[in-house]
Amino acid sequence: MTTNDILRALAPLIRAHTEHLPAPPVAVTADSRLEQDLRMDSMAIVHVLEAIEDTFGLTIPDERLAGVYTVGDLVDIVRTTTASAERVA
Fold it and tell me: Would you say residue 89 lies in a domain?
């Protein structure tokens, strides 16, 4: 799965957790900052992480969550966690 494939899959998950905002973000890009640009609070981020785990069939280790600030960081987590799971299988 390419970076663009992952980004395309993540965008609707993120939008689902930002559409309730008064002015939801127009675009979700790899450079979009979760808190500043998308106005997500910590609970929304947790819900997105749960949706990512469900959608991709992953378990994201807690230590991978430190330093997650952008959508690109989430893409990297999915890409590396998926790659790790494939190596184990």
Answer: no
pLDDT (tens digit per residue) in 12-21: 999 888 877 6
Full domain range(s) for residue 43: 3-83
CATH number for the domain including 34?
Answer: 1.10.1200.10
Q: Quote the pLDDT of residue 86.
A: 60
| SS3 at position 88 | helix
- Per DSSP, the three-state class of 70 is strand
pLDDT one-digit tens code per residue, 1-14 = 889 999 999 999 99
- What is the count of structural domains for the chain? 1
* Helix, strand or coil, per DSSP, at residue 17: coil
